Amino acid sequence: MGIISALISTYDKTGIDELGMALAKAGVRIFSTGGTAKFLASHNIVVREVNTLTGFPELMGGRVKTLHPHIFAGILARRTMQYDMEELTHRELPPIDLVVVNLYPFREVVKNPTCSLEDALENIDIGGVALLRAAAKNFPAVIVLSSPDQYAEFMDRLASNKLDDDYRRRLALEAFCLTKNYDLAISNWLRGGPQLDAETIAPVYKKSSVLRYGENPHQQASLFLPYGEPPRGIPAARKLNGREISYNNYLDLEAAWKLCREFDKPAAVIVKHNNPCGVALGSDLAEAFHRAYQADAMSAYGGIVAVNRPVDSAAAEQILVKGTFFEAMVAPSYTPEALLELKTRKSWCERFIILELPNFLEGLPGYELRYLVGGLLVQSTDLTLWNDDEVHVVSKAQPSPEMMAQMRFAYTVAKHARSNAIVIAKDYATLGIGMGQPNRVWSMERALASAEEQAKGAVLASDGFFPMPDAPGLALAAGIAGIVQPGGSKADEKVVEEVDRAGAIMVFTGQRHFRH
To answer: What's the CATH code of the domain at 331?
Structure first.
């Protein structure tokens, strides 16, 4: 089925000059709206204004231009129905075989904190959504292009006459996915933000890439991104080096990035199997990474690295430590010299995945989704560490401002480790991390074993309260000077008594951070 007439009405003019030329070369009549028509004409492409179809001028400065029966009749006419085609002939209307539309950038506009109600409403596309849905409904006869990303394939298929039914169906599906997510963004905005309602917030996802495999080699995996939305987080990072990013790489890179972005000072995070194994701050990135690596050099082998500052040669030198290798890393940027070192210095550098994420401090979404078999769990994102008004010292001994800062560091790391999480830290570097154990005593033993003698005078953070004094007793016996925990256990009084007996410090935050 060939293309005789096309309707082009786009906000984003990317690529429509090339598309218009390809259509003109194929002898296709092009109808278009104001701004798009002028753009095409400026590239010497013959174009007809839509009012030649409607017999009616654009209204309200272009606010109403395509919402007309003559246009929708040309799109919706069923080519196999004699009545429909006779109706078009009677009214001297051409069938429209191709609809090229992209929508007003509503999401981008309302992200601006200074966006006014008027600006938001003006960027809700009405005619474009209607055109996409009409064309997609009649996809056996009408091809619908809803994104500039689709133009190249379309032009190749047009040139080789491969506009088959499967291709048309796929484009229709993508158009409906786009309009669904577009309406979803508008409804979320009207509510004042995403709500904890899966029907409201669960977007439609489109396959972005096929991954090497899933968590294990016998499992298949792909990366999907919300349809019609710009990538964010790790999927938005630019790959500068290395092999294909795997399923596990994505999970670990995100875990490392989420923790690293919490710190204001130069920070380095090393993650293994979705858990932090070394975290440190430093006067510069080189020092931060050296201290993070030294925190647990054994576990760091084959790990994932995140840093929150541009990587320079000094930092690269520390990352390329002797006797180890890393799977991947993400940073805001790299100096040319550092990037060259990271790409070429060692044999493993060839496969070392290096990601650049300029929007390193981008805000996280307000909700999280986790899928069950037959269900979907939705919760608000854990964005805060503690509320200062709820933090109180429960021990007789009082912490200095410096110790409170150390406790904040340790508690931040505990927030990102699997429950039951215990983090021992000193001088803004982790010494031992126990996590993912079925009881807090085992996590405590693991953290203390890693910290060894360095536990003396260190601070300790727990993501949950202590149900009895046994685990804190182990910490105090090892010389831990300060413990920060949520509080709220029936055994709180007994735990505090043990702390006071040891002359140590205990702080309750009133906010736990379980991570299952």
So the answer is: 3.40.140.20
Indicate whether 167 and 216 sit together in one domain.
no
Question: DSSP secondary structure string, 6-53?
Answer: EEEEESS-TTHHHHHHHHHHTT-EEEE-HHHHHHHHHTT---EETHHH
Predicted confidence (pLDDT) per residue in 10-39, tens digit? 999 999 999 999 999 999 999 988 889 999
* Helices within 331-378 (DSSP H only): 336-344
**Confidence band for 437, pLDDT divided at 50, 70 and 90:** very high
> What pTM was computed for the model?
0.75
Nearest alpha-carbon partner for 254 in 385, 357, 326? 357
Max avg pLDDT among 124-133, 185-194, 327-336:
327-336
Nearest to 252 by CA among 421, 462, 416, 443: 416
Catalytic, out of 13, 137, 343, 494: 137
Task: pLDDT band for 200, please (50, 70, 90 cuts).
Answer: low
Active site residue 273: yes
- Asked if residue 499 belongs to a domain, the reply is yes
End-to-end CA distance of the chain: 54
Of the pLDDT bands very low, low, confident and very high (cuts 50, 70, 90), residue 211 is very high
| Domain presence at residue 128 | yes
Residue 197: per-residue pLDDT: 47
In the predicted model, is pLDDT for residue 394 greater than 70? yes
- Give me the domain span that covers residue 452: 388-508
Q: Which helix (H) or strand (E) holds 280?
A: strand 275-281
Both structure tokens of 479: 């010389």
Task: Give the C-alpha separation, 329 to 388, whole Å.
Answer: 33
65 is catalytic: no
Of 13, 206, 239, 273, which one is the catalytic site residue? 273
Q: What is the DSSP letter of 215?
A: S
Q: Looking at the structure, tell me whether residues 134 and 212 fall in a common domain.
A: no
Helix or strand (DSSP H, E) at 130: helix 127-137
CB-neighbour burial class of residue 30 (10 A; exposed 0-12, middle 13-18, buried 19+): buried
Provide φ and ψ at 403, rounded to 5°.
-65, -40
Q: In angstroms, rounded to a whole number, what is the distance separating the alpha carbons of residues 86 and 80? A: 11
Is 488:389 a contact under the CB 8 Å cutoff? no
Does residue 382 belong to any structural domain of this protein?
Answer: no
Look at residue 202 and tell me whether its pLDDT is greater than 60: no
Helix (H, G, I), strand (E, B) or coil at 462: strand
pLDDT of residue 203: 66
